[in-house]
Design a protein that fits this description.
- By secondary structure, the chain is α+β, with helices and mostly antiparallel strands.
- The two termini are 14 Å apart.
- The chain has 2 domains: 40 residues; 248 residues, q2cbj1_9rhob like domain (Jelly Rolls, Sandwich), CATH 2.60.120.
- The protein has 12 helices and 9 strands.
- Bound molecules: fe (ii) ion (FE2).
């Protein structure tokens, strides 16, 4: 389906959902699905439950690979070491471009990165937060270039794919305030900002955002290599601050429920053929997380 048709379909779905009747019905269906799934939620340790509770109350948790202790972290980091030099060879193709992503062939070749995002403990945390079975939207391995391009995800926005969208962002180099940190506005401001901007969707220029909220409330997630940010990017306004000093390498793992509110916004860079190759070593539960589309 081409981009124009997808956008048109999204607008149609949004218009329907904005009509009170359909909006109420969709909300009731969503609540019923959560209630139905509550007894199926996987058990969490108290440490992992703390992450879920912080996501509920703050919309964001900042931790590290060391603190998370995910079993395949070493293999994942080993894969990033192989992949980083390959990304650096393909930069500066286009003047409006600000990030270079690993392509599907590279994601398959360095599959340990893809596999890390499907670690059962991470899936269990996310399922408890979503309250629904998890859809894994593939990892985005990216190099954000230190240039002045200011568009799309470098502008303020909320993610639209679903009611809750979990992003796990792993920094692969040290990121200070000039190194292109993930920036966000605390969850408590979301209702006021949404109302003041009459925000529905799209990207907001920084100058516009500063007219409705003081920049002293903008939070930069700085940290050393191995910093992990877990955020609900549908609930907190966020952007990637432009890197000034040097390019930023990071991996973005993204998750929604398997019945996202706006499925056409759920981008896919991996084809079914790609996923079938990656699925060969996965458990049944992990396979359900990648083959969730109707
Ligand atoms: Fe986003």
């Amino acid at each position: 389906m081409n981009t124009f048709v997808k956008k048109a379909l999204n607008r149609i779905i949004e218009s329907f959902l904005q009509i009170h009747f359909f909006s109420n019905k969709a909300e009731l269906t969503y609540q019923a699905a959560i209630e139905k799934h509550v007894d199926n939620l996987p058990f969490l340790s108290s440490n992992d439950m703390t992450i879920v509770e912080a996501l509920r109350s703050e919309g964001i948790v900042i931790t590290s690979l060391t603190a998370l202790l995910i079993p395949s972290t070493l293999q994942m980091l080993q894969a990033t070491k192989g992949l980083i030099p390959k990304i650096s060879q393909s930069i500066y193709r286009n003047k409006t471009e600000y990030a270079i992503h690993a392509n599907p062939k590279q994601i398959i070749e360095y599959r340990e990165i893809f596999d890390w995002g499907l670690e059962q403990r991470l899936l269990n945390i996310i399922e408890n937060y979503l309250g629904l079975p998890v859809a894994y939207l593939h990892p985005s391995f990216r190099r954000d270039i230190a240039n002045q391009v200011q568009r799309n995800t470098r502008l303020w926005h909320l993610d639209k794919e679903d009611r809750k969208v979990v992003k796990i962002i792993v920094y692969l180099n040290d990121v200070n305030d000039d190194g292109g940190p993930f920036q966000y506005i605390p969850l408590s401001f979301t209702p006021t900002v949404t109302r003041s901007l009459r925000y529905n969707y799209g990207y907001i220029q920084n100058q516009t955002m500063q007219q409705v909220i003081s920049p002293s409330n903008f939070k930069s997630c700085t940290g050393s290599s191995g910093t992990v940010i877990i955020a609900d990017t549908a609930k907190i306004f966020h952007r990637g601050k432009i890197p000034i000093d040097s390019d930023r390498f990071a991996i973005f793992f993204e998750y929604t429920s398997r019945f996202p509110k706006y499925p056409f916004y759920c981008k896919r860079s991996l084809t079914n053929e790609n996923l079938l190759i990656l699925a060969t070593k996965l458990s049944e539960n992990q396979r359900r997380c990648i083959f969730w589309r109707l």
